[in-house]
Design brief:
The chain has 251 residues and is α/β, with parallel strands linked by helices. It folds into two domains: 105 residues, Cobalt-precorrin-4 Transmethylase, domain 1 (3-Layer(aba) Sandwich), CATH 3.40.1010; 118 residues, Tetrapyrrole methylase, C-terminal domain (Methyltransferase, Cobalt-precorrin-4 Transmethylase, Domain 2, 2-Layer Sandwich), CATH 3.30.950. The chain has seven helices and ten strands. Strands 3-2-4-1-5 form a five-stranded parallel sheet, sandwiched between helices. The structure holds S-adenosyl-L-homocysteine. The site of S-adenosyl-L-homocysteine (SAH) has 25 residues, from helix 4 and strand 10.
Length: 251
């Protein structure tokens, strides 16, 4: 059995209780060494085999899993944040489906949630934006043309960009050409929830110079949108004059 587990975005105590239990039980752990907090490996039992996937190919990780299965062992495949976002688990599950290997997925705290917490903000403020666009700049991995940043910008919604800290010149040009005003607030969140977490607030047009001035080119999320600074209406959810499924309006 293989458990694909979200490690959370940094701080070791952001892993779920279920993820921690699977780590404690595992005979084999393959972790994404580029970003997963190594402190989490401390939950494994004595004798657990540990592999760093940042130094391995898909074929190699699949080989480790297949051997573990033949030996009746339990494997945890530990991914940073939530495995469903930029985790390359699709191709791993396809391999396991082909080999008839059973697996399940335990979600994790994605860095886009960690970044909102670091910023002490809400992405979905009433009257400001009710939509979060999660995407990335087109780089070595191409983004389909129909999802170009320029086209996504036309909504002027809250935007969170992964894997883009080294491409900020291009990000600003595309987002401004697509419809965000150049002075739209932006924030770079570096290593959300890690001890060396850093936040840099700027505007869309100053993203690249802000990153450069602070030496940021990786392990950062870019957030863009008026949610960072705008005034907003209060919600209906906690408004005394509105009834909800759980509470009558106060007349
Ligand atoms: N599955 C992960 C994302 C993996 S892709 C998740 O849900 O968070 C790797 C990218 O995620 C990095 O390049 C960076 O853009 C972002 N990232 C991961 N951890 C981060 C953190 N703690 N703070 C800021 N960005 C982070």
């Amino acid at each position: 059995m293989v458990h694909i587990v979200g490690a959370g975005c940094g701080a070791a105590d952001l892993i779920t209780l279920r993820g921690k239990r699977y780590l404690e039980e595992a005979d084999v752990v393959i972790y994404a060494g580029s970003l997963v907090n190594r402190e989490l490996l401390g939950f494994t039992k004595a004798g657990c085999e540990i592999y760093d996937s940042s130094k391995m190919t898909l074929e190699e990780t699949a080989g480790v899993i297949e051997r573990a299965e033949r030996e009746g062992k339990t494997t945890v495949r530990l991914h940073t944040g939530d495995p469903s976002l930029y985790g390359a688990i699709g191709e791993q599950m396809r391999e396991m489906d082909r080999s008839g290997i059973e697996y399940d997925i335990t979600p994790g705290v994605s860095s886009f949630s960690g970044a909102a917490a670091a910023l002490k903000t809400e992405y979905t403020l009433p009257d400001v934006s009710q939509t979060v666009i999660i995407s990335r700049a087109s780089g070595k991995t191409a983004v389909p043309e129909k999802e170009s940043l320029r086209s996504l910008a036309s909504h002027r919604a809250t935007m969170v960009l992964f894997l883009s800290a080294g491409l900020l010149g291009q990000v600003s040009v595309e987002l401004i050409a697509g419809g965000y005003p150049p002075e739209t607030p932006a924030a770079i969140v570096y290593k959300a929830s890690w001890p060396d977490e850093k936040i840099f607030r700027c505007t869309l047009s100053t993203l690249e110079e802000t990153a450069r001035a602070n030496g940021i080119n990786r392990t950062a999320l870019i957030t863009v949108g008026d949610f960072l600074t705008s005034d907003f209406s209060r919600s209906h959810l906690y408004d005394p004059s509105y009834s909800t499924g759980y509470r009558e309006a106060i007349k």
